[in-house]
Design brief:
- This is AB hydrolase-1 domain-containing protein.
- It comes from Arachis hypogaea.
- By secondary structure, this protein is α+β, with helices and mostly antiparallel strands.
- The chain has one domain.
- The chain contains three helices and two strands.
Length: 70
């Protein structure tokens, strides 16, 4: 069971680990896992699209600090 939030950031053009793997991992990790595909990025998302990666990471981390009420 997944007790912590997990955010999968994936390069949509990743040839090493296909996007389908990320979707399978998301399903296996449970409902506290989110997935985001980064367009025009391959395997090394943080190097190929650093601004998109950092924006997504900042958004995810902010959601942990300041969660929206359900």
């Amino acid at each position: 069971m997944n007790w912590q939030q997990i955010h999968l950031l994936w390069g949509e053009n990743d040839k090493i680990f296909k996007k389908e793997l990320a979707h399978n991992m998301k399903e296996l990790l449970g409902n506290k896992t989110t997935f985001e595909g980064i367009k025009n990025a391959s395997h090394l998302v943080h190097m190929v699209r650093p601004c998109a990666f950092n924006t997504s990471l900042n958004h995810f981390l902010s959601s942990l600090l300041f969660p929206t009420p359900n």
